[in-house]
Ribulose-phosphate 3-epimerase
Amino acid sequence: MNKPFIAPSVLAADFANIQSEVEMLNESVADWIHVDIMDGRFVPNISFGIPVAEAINRHAKKPLDVHLMIEQPENYVDQFYKAGAASITVHYEACPHLHRNIQQIKELGIKAGVALNPHTNVQLLEDIISEIDIVLIMSVNPGFGGQKFIENTYKKVKQLKEIIIDAGADTLIEIDGGVNEGNARKLINSGADVLVAGSFVFKSEDPKGTILDLKNV
């Protein structure tokens, strides 16, 4: 069985020491660095914006996986691409013209992702799944770190995997929220390819060891 991609979320990092936190991730077996952007409108929290993403990218040796939890993401895609994003994920719920949003990202030559909130049905992506590089399933309600994992996520992952296989697509399934050593194996067995972990990594006594444990779960 393939090992999952691990994408630690810097939302849980120590921002007073962001350079050393990113260097720790560089030295770890993490595959991507997950960057959560929140605008206080689409989700009830504000995280950070383009200058911080640029600062992270200056030190990062791993691809930046940028997750835009914002309204009208099309207005900011180019700026996050210039800030160093290797993939940009927008929310289904924020994009009335989702196909256009996906094409906008792909035209930059980077991976295009679509995120789904816990209440959003995976079947809604059936018609465009072949266009999407990553589907990010939110396994908590977006906006805050450290939340409890939503158990219905396993069912959504299995349903999405069937849609991907039926379409002959190679879309990756990414899980974000409450991921830890207790649910990682079940998520992978359900069809997940990428695990995002924030608090679980950065609040552990040995973050690099925790990343390695998730990789080998």
Remarks:
- The chain has a mean pLDDT of 95.
- The chain is about 30% helix and 20% strand.
